[in-house]
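Researcher: Re-running this chain for the archive, since the previous output was lost when a drive failed. Same request as before.
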Amino acid sequence: MLKRNYSTIIVGALALVLLFVPEAKAMIQQGLMKLGLFDPKLEKVEKSSQPETEANYIFEMVDVDGKTVNMEDLKGKVVFMNFWATWCPPCIAEMPSIQTLYDKVKEDKDIVILTVEVEGKRDKVAKFMERKKLSLPVVYPNSSIPTDFFNGSLPTTIILDKKGNIAHTTMGMADYSGQDIVDFLNELKTME
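Model: Regenerated structure tokens:
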């Protein structure tokens, strides 16, 4: 009887930790991502499926140094943009995979990786990035976010082609560490 009570207490304590500690949830979710359960659904980009016109989204961001980044500045580049917050367990879970992607493409001047932190608590973000040993470029919204990019669901990741058109959207966490995402970004680079 006593052993049964201990196991009930342990299971209850674990449930409470998973319920109230974002880092614990993120750790479980990272394990599931490593099993391949959360791969982004990337569709092959067909040249004919690419819109002929350039998108004209108006969205201004500011980086950690206060430098402004506009959508117009990103035209001609393939842009991977992840919307996240420090309190979001799925966001925390996918961050290491985004770091891996960033490390693979950071030298490529035609690909831009941006993590858009939507909460805006810069001190908290700086501590988070340092604690997690992440060197990802973090930007903060400095204007309204286009609803085509982000409708409030965290995390959300969009990939823009060189004309600024949305080529891919993932709502929810995904593992971006695989070669398939790098190939997808490189494929978009070759599209005119």
